[in-house]
């Protein structure tokens, strides 16, 4: 039986600097039968800037993902090549696509990455905080209570914590983090790879007023825990029980 080129390509695109549009990403996007894009207009502009004429551009976002999955499976069955891109950076990383990739793999189709820019790694590469071990949270929950619980759970984690946040929620998020994570160092990585790229280093618990009103895209990196580990009551009880059982 002749092998078909059928494949789902997961393609990273620039965060803002067109110089980061890799030759391989351009080649794949220029060749595939269908490109799935979060925002077809935005991706259309990116393709135009690289003189790529897409064969077919289809929308793919959270609310039509289920419907599109069936369509993509049918295309792959027909031997077509499909590429998934997000608005900027790496698909699936706080962007749609995970369910599609999972189903394609379950159905035995080939899925290949075309790696490239991602805000989480770009921030870690230049923020000056320990790059690993790190945990990535995606976007934080919107509700203050849920954010607080998340940071509370993470308080014992000894590594670096990275998350994405909208500009108007960054300062409240850092204040919540300060309450639960203590005096760790942080870095606000802003407008990565773009003209106004900026890394603002600070310490949780310090005055954050100077960060109010910042514009642009932001990735937050919080460095590892410093000083003695906070031991909660349950842990103390567990240790006492262990000791008294000896
Ligand atoms: N999947 C993309 C990635 O991993 O690069 C991220 C997509 S997510 C929907 C968008 C969020 O990523 C933004 O709200 C911001 O937190 C972060 N981000 C995207 N571009 C950025 C940039 N140039 N500088 C800093 N953060 C950025």
General description of the model:
This protein has about 250 residues and is an alpha/beta fold. About 35% of the residues lie in helices and about 20% in strands. The protein has helices at about 25-30, 40-50, 65-75, 100-105, 120-125, 145-155, 170-180, 235-245; strands at about 5-10, 35, 55-60, 80-85, 110-115, 135-140, 160-165, 185-190, 200-205, 220. The strands form two sheets. The protein has a five-stranded parallel β-sheet, with helices on both faces. A five-stranded mixed β-sheet has the order 6-7-10-8-9, covered by helices on one side. The protein starts with 6 loop residues before the first strand and ends with a helix. The mean pLDDT is about 95. S-adenosylmethionine binds near residues 16 and 193.
Helix fraction by DSSP (H/I, runs of at least 4) = 25-40%
**Which structural class matches the secondary elements?**
alpha/beta
Largest sheet: 5 strands, parallel
- CA-CA gap between termini: 68 Å
What is the number of helices?
8
Shape estimate: globular
- What ligand molecules are bound, each kind once? S-adenosylmethionine
H and E string: EHEHEHEHEHEHEHEEEH
Task: Give the quaternary arrangement of the chains.
Answer: single chain
Determine the mean pLDDT.
93
**What is the radius of gyration?**
22 Å
Count of distinct strands: 10
**Beta strand %:** 15-25%
Could you name the ranges where pLDDT drops below 50 across 5 or more consecutive residues?
A: none
